[in-house]
Amino acid sequence: MNTPAPVEVGLIGAGPWARAMHARILAAGPETRLTAVWARRTEAAREIADTYGAVTAGSPEELFDRCEAVAFAVPPAVQAELAVRAAKAGKALLLEKPLGPDLASARAVADAVAEAGVVSQMVLTKRYQAETRDFLRRAQEAEVTGARSCYLHGAFLGGEFATGWRLEQGALLDLGPHLIDLLDAAVGPITSIRATGDPRRWVEVTCEHENGAVSQASLSGSVRLPKPRTRIELLGPGGEVVYDTSVIDHEEGWPVLRAEFAAAVRSGRAGELDARRGLRLQELIDAALR
């Protein structure tokens, strides 16, 4: 049986997340090969490209010409604009959350993906962990009356991830997609959602689910903790089902993400974590804000 050729991926973005994750993981292969990098800061793009033997593209269109798939590691507004162009160019998309800075831009990306018929996949990092998948399997077997959850860290207090859009939009748009995605998948489809508080400091989200369960989520990027904390407790008559990322080795998820994206590109069939899922999460966040 012949091994498929590595998917040639172009990377848009050269910030801390691009350096820490996208470039390193995509270049490591064997399922993918990093072929080109473009960023508005040419020197930053060149530094990444030179490290991994890729080309520094002079424009997004030049990057599109040098790859068959595009990975994004840029602010939501930039992703929303360039992802539409990449989809129209026929490129598969590896997309960050949130899909866009607002619902309209997220819908434009999802519509462009659907119209072009290209493969898309969201970088919802926790979904590629074995522990997360085991939790979701256990959740399907549980009768859930209610759920408590949190996603808390102090990245907004300073450092290279305290970037403009995160500080302006806060935890709901940045951390919310991860936790809302897991609650929607574990407890059941969310039918109503509302948020209170200040997303730049602390926000509480209450969800009502299709099966009658109620869940709550606490979100903050502005609290000092020894390490980021993500925890979900599903509670019901049969006992509790707990998910806690303190026991997870996050490095184990990246090869899974890479392999599943490459397999989707080669088969031409996206998985469940595609742009439509990204749009679903953006719709829920928009509803919570209203």
From TrEMBL:
Keyword annotations of the record: Oxidoreductase
Q: GO: which molecular function terms?
A: nucleotide binding; oxidoreductase activity
- Pfam families listed in its UniProt record: GFO_IDH_MocA (PF01408), GFO_IDH_MocA_C3 (PF22725)
InterPro entries on file: Gfo/Idh/MocA-like_OxRdtase_N (IPR000683), Gfo/Idh/MocA_oxidrdct_glycsds (IPR050463), GFO_IDH_MocA-like_dom (IPR055170), NAD(P)-bd_dom_sf (IPR036291)
Ranges for domain GFO/IDH/MocA-like oxidoreductase come to 161-240
Q: Give the species this sequence originates from.
A: Actinacidiphila glaucinigra
**Translocase in keyword set:** no
Protein's UniProt name: Predicted dehydrogenase
Residue ranges constituting the Gfo/Idh/MocA-like oxidoreductase N-terminal domain according to the UniProt record: 8-121
What the entry lists under SUPFAM superfamilies is as follows: Glyceraldehyde-3-phosphate dehydrogenase-like, C-terminal domain, NAD(P)-binding Rossmann-fold domains
